[in-house]
Amino acid sequence: MPAILLVEDDEIMRITVQDRLRRQKWDVEAVAGGMEAMERLRQRNYHLVISDIRMPGMDGLELLDLVRSHSPFTDIIMMTAYGSVEDAIDCLKKGATDYILKPFDMDDLVIRSTRILEMQSVRARCASLEETCRQARETIIGSSPQIRQVHALINRVAPTDSTVLITGESGTGKELAASAIQRASRRADKPYIRINCAAIPEGLIESELFGHEKGAFTGAHARKPGRFEMADGGTLLLDEVGELPLGLQAKLLRILQEGECERVGGTMTIKVDVRLLCATARNLEEEVQAGRFRQDLLYRLQVIPLTMPPLRERREDIAVLSNHFLHEFSLRRGMALSLSAEAMQCLMSYDFPGNVRELRNILERASVLAPEPVITPADLPADLQPQGLTQGSSGPVMLAEALAKTERECLLNALTLTGGNRTRAAELLGISRKNLWEKMKLHEITF
Q1: For the domain that residue 437 is a member of, what is the CATH number?
Q2: Can you tell me the distance from the alpha carbon of 444 to that of 52, in angstroms, rounded to the nearest whole number?
Q3: Are residues 379 and 418 in the same domain?
Q4: What are the start-end ranges of the H helices in 302-391?
């Protein structure tokens, strides 16, 4: 329900406007002056402030400046009986959303307020719109029995609000499964927010999830809503949820149990209605045994467990996936790319430790480096080529092996220098924390 703060020193006007706005089923609080308004703003988050300009004590323009600095995501409508074009321009320059002259028609105020609240909803959805559109074009490709089971489970759980824990190896398509659930849910037209817990430094992840108040820490120049607030009414995906620190796991458990949270540096309880999806490549049962993940949180997350199968267990999908990716790369290169029968056999015989993501990367590289439209085994990485072919062409094999060996040594050196701190190691290597984690998995590095 939209929360509105009305600031009007005239008692009759205040009661009249408040009653009219409440008829729209909005939560409307009314105060008589700017000082009281600021006190309410410190205690609660409002979607909209409607304020008179001329008031005793603190006038509306002073209140406008304070609201803009304290709560920049709150919209403001200014009211005055002594208006001019210059006053309107001044208000809008200072950050007011709209400006209305007294006496005004109550229906006009309702229309303006409705338009502003609708725009807020649009802005919340736009926070991840570009990524959502990209995800919407991607689907889980395959017709193997394992993938059919995944689709069947998604169709059953999507219409509910149950929490889903999506597990599987890196590159199996966990984000695609989450997107499929969101698109088939009752919240499909509501915000869909995603956050990768492994890609954000530990010191910032709490602020990203729950938001922060102005002055909560160095650099917190204004109040900022968290991802849970942005996803209110919609769906939130926590990717790599197994990377969450233990302290934050307790706060996540509270949201699942109570549907409320607090911003960093704040005391105000914020109610949120969010459908939570979680994904992880970790074995959370083992993480619980090792003391790195809360058992009670695991019980709450795996209400509906969904496991994405590795590519080596659904080899019949390799050909379908390969043709799909080659069609995409053909459009990029402006030529019809295809795989020779021998190259397809090489792919079918490979175990793909990096799963679908590795298959896509292999085909993208081959589509760029292959001299002819038909990709042959010689255009594939050395690990996929037949043994006889690699012995006769030592140059490419030695280069591939040297690159892999060098990359592994760089990873080990960075982790050794940082004492195993993945965040600092990723900074030294100039890559993201998630990319570091994926490379460690690829090279079987445990540190």
Answers
A1: 1.10.10.60
A2: 65
A3: no
A4: 318-333, 341-349, 355-369, 387-391
Residue whose structure tokens are 């100039």? 430
Residue 371 is part of which domain span?
311-392
The rounded distance, in Å, linking the Cα atoms of 432 and 3 is: 39
pLDDT per residue over 367-395, tens digit each?
888 888 899 988 888 878 765 444 444 44
Other C-beta atoms lying within 10 Å of the C-beta of residue 207: 21
Label the pairing between strands 224-225 and 211-212: antiparallel
Tell the burial category of 183 from Cβ atoms under 10 Å away from its Cβ (0-12, 13-18, 19+).
middle
* CATH code for position 149: 3.40.50.300
pTM of structure: 0.63
What amino acid occupies position 357?
A: R
Q: Can you give the pLDDT at residue 290?
A: 92
**Residue whose token pair is 């020193």:** 9
User: Would the pLDDT of 157 be above 70?
Assistant: yes
Residues 305 and 316 in one domain: no
pLDDT of residue 73: 78
DSSP 1: -
Query: Pick from 309, 330, 351: which residue ends a domain?
Result: 309
Q: How far apart are CA 436 and CA 430, in angstroms?
A: 10
Q: Where are the beta strands (DSSP E) in 47-154?
A: 48-52, 75-80, 98-101
Separation between Cα atoms, residue 386 and residue 343, nearest integer Å: 10
